[in-house]
Design a protein that fits this description.
The protein has helices at residues 2-6, 11-18, 29-48, 57-72, 98-108, 128-138, 149-161, 182-188, 204-210, 237-246, 273-278, 304-311, 315-318, 323-337, 341-344, 346-351, 355-369, 412-420, 444-462, and strands spanning 80-81, 116-117, 122-123, 142-146, 165-169, 175-176, 180-181, 192-196, 215-221, 251-256, 263-265, 268-270, 283-287, 298-302, 378-386, 398-406, 426-427, 429-431, 434-438. The longest helix has 20 residues, at 29-48. The protein folds into three domains: 2-72, no CATH class; 80-86 and 351-462, Alpha-Beta Complex (Aspartate Aminotransferase, domain 1), CATH 3.90.1150.180; 98-344, 3-Layer(aba) Sandwich (Aspartate Aminotransferase, domain 2). The protein has 463 residues and is an alpha/beta fold. α3 (29-48) packs across α4, α5 (98-108) packs antiparallel against α14 and α6 (128-138) runs parallel beside α14 (323-337). 42% of the residues lie in helices and 18% in strands. The strands form six sheets. It has a seven-stranded mixed β-sheet, sandwiched between helices. Strands 15-16-19-18 form a four-stranded antiparallel β-sheet. It has a two-stranded parallel ribbon with strand order 1-17. The structure holds pyridoxal-5'-phosphate. Pyridoxal-5'-phosphate (PLP) binds at residues 148-150, 174, 176, 180, 221-222, 224, 254, 256-257, 287, 298, 391. Belongs to the SelA family. Residues 5-44 form the L-seryl-tRNA selenium transferase N-terminal domain. Pathway: Aminoacyl-tRNA biosynthesis; selenocysteinyl-tRNA(Sec) biosynthesis; selenocysteinyl-tRNA(Sec) from L-seryl-tRNA(Sec) (bacterial route): step 1/1. It is found in: Cytoplasm.
């Protein structure tokens, strides 16, 4: 082994060989050296582990080239979402509308009016680009935007309730993914949590009895990822507002996904932001990249006197939105104002596809996949269901359609893995030893990618 270790070519020699290919000159020299060192180190490691390893000049150069390719490859990449989950947090939540994507592109490629007032030639505010539309779409007096809804809740509590009590129903002490938990956010914001009621039932009187001179607010939280069903009760929002206002305190509502247009399925509906504002809620917070369908953002809408306090809070600077997300948000809000959101905003369109439309989409994908049958693969249209995702319509299974593929020569598990590692990764589900492609979130281009990948894998498996 010692002998073989000594036979690994010197880096200088490898470098000389590598630069015989003029294309290598496009890489910085330091990076090429690093790549060769990595290749040599790996060979050394394998030899030490007693493994067989090709240590020829050409093998080491090939390994260095692979390392360089990897170094220039992106990790954050497009994937095909064949899971049927429209607001898949791990897959980046909402795809942008054409208008929002164009707005992002324009702003990112040059300079923009982020904090510049064209009328006066003076400094402007980044919030001015979206506040008017948020107010028009929700009925709120004023609004503010931050990085995400978690930041919105933190800012609201920090600005309005630091060192004071906030009353929450025990049925709404939510934990959502990524460790956002109401009791902990409350603590971060410096507020004192006062739990009232029980897990299943909280009455107006529970809130009334808990209000003290040190109460800063009543907080309602959308139960985004669970339902309490059966023997249950929560006071009506308007009643709660009436009580809170009679005692001189505001009502805050964390709506989570918070839709701007009504959305219902499976006997449940998502609350609209306008309904909460109309019921008198003083401050509503919701996400930009859930049902709204924009990029990451946290929207705070409500009464001006509370928004004014938040505008002056030092946390706002730490939580502020960047120009790209802001452009995506403004573009999407325009879809809701002058466009048809049910047609133009992808998440709204996908969530509303009818059973007929989905069945047709599945039949079309099946048709395109029929060449797989020549390799002994089975291809069937199948009825499936999926969640809306993103804290929208929790516990509702949205019925849909997909195509189930039963491969030949490789297992469904292997097929799913290879699709996931394809040049454009395809994320699908496994069900009953088949790989299932839910068609709800697929574009025409996505369907083409699925066909291409499956066909190549079928050819490979058949050999
Ligand atoms: C999703 C959600 C949040 C967090 O929103 P992000 O925009 O992901 O930060 C907070 N509260 C509720 C109720 C939610 O559903």
């Amino acid at each position: 082994m010692q002998e073989k270790l000594k036979l690994i070519p010197a880096i200088d020699r490898l470098l000389g060989e590598m630069y015989k290919d003029p294309a290598v000159a496009e890489w910085p020299r330091d990076l090429v050296v690093t790549a060769l060192r990595e290749a040599a180190a790996q060979a050394r490691q394998r030899l030490r582990a007693g493994e067989d390893c090709d240590i020829s000049v050409s093998a080491l150069i090939a390994a260095a080239r692979a390392w360089l390719r990897q170094a220039s490859g992106r990790s954050l990449r497009k994937v095909v979402n064949a899971t049927g989950v429209v607001l898949h947090t791990n897959l980046g939540r909402a795809p942008l509308s054409a208008r929002a994507a164009a707005a992002v592109r324009e702003v990112m490629e040059g300079y923009c009016t982020l904090e510049y007032d064209l009328a006066t030639g003076q400094r402007g505010t980044r919030y001015a680009h979206v506040v008017g539309r948020i107010c028009a779409l929700t009925g709120a007096e004023d609004a503010l935007v931050v990085n995400n809804n978690a930041a919105a809740v933190l800012l609201v509590l920090s600005a309005l309730a630091k060192g004071r009590e906030v009353i929450v129903s025990r049925g709404q002490l939510v934990e959502i993914g990524g460790s956002f938990r109401i009791p902990e956010v409350m603590q971060q914001g410096g507020a004192i949590l006062v739990e009232v009621g029980t897990t299943n039932k909280t009455h107006l009187a529970d809130f009334a009895n808990a209000i003290t001179a040190n109460t800063a607010a009543v907080l309602k939280v959308h139960t985004s990822n669970y339902r309490i069903v059966g023997f249950t009760a929560q006071p009506d929002t308007a009643e709660l507002v009436k009580l809170a206002h009679s005692r001189g305190i505001p009502v805050i509502e964390d709506l989570g996904s918070g839709t701007l247009v009504p959305l219902a399925a499976g006997g449940w509906s998502e609350p609209t932001v306008r309904e909460s504002i109309a019921a008198g809620v003083d401050i509503v917070t919701f996400s930009g990249d859930k049902l709204l369908g924009a990029g990451q953002a946290g929207i705070i809408a409500g009464r001006r006197r509370y928004i004014e306090i938040m505008k002056k809070h030092p946390l706002l600077r730490a939580l502020r939105m960047d120009k790209l997300s802001l452009a995506a948000l403004e573009g999407t809000l325009i879809d809701y104002t002058v466009g048809d959101p049910l047609r133009d905003v992808p998440v709204q369109r996908m969530l509303r596809l009818t059973q007929d439309e989905l069945a047709q989409k599945a039949a079309a994908l099946k048709e395109r996949l029929t060449p797989l049958q020549a390799y002994g693969w089975r291809v069937d249209v199948t009825e499936i269901s999926a969640q809306a995702g993103g804290g929208a319509l929790p516990a509702v299974d949205l019925p849909g359609w997909g195509v189930a593929v039963r491969p030949q020569g490789i297992s469904a598990v292997a097929l799913e893995r290879q699709l996931r590692q394809w040049c454009v990764p395809i994320i699908a589900r496994i069900q009953d030893d088949q790989v299932v492609f839910d068609v709800r979130c697929l574009t025409d281009e996505d369907a083409g990618l699925i066909c291409q990948a499956c066909l190549e894998l079928a050819k490979g498996a058949g050999q």
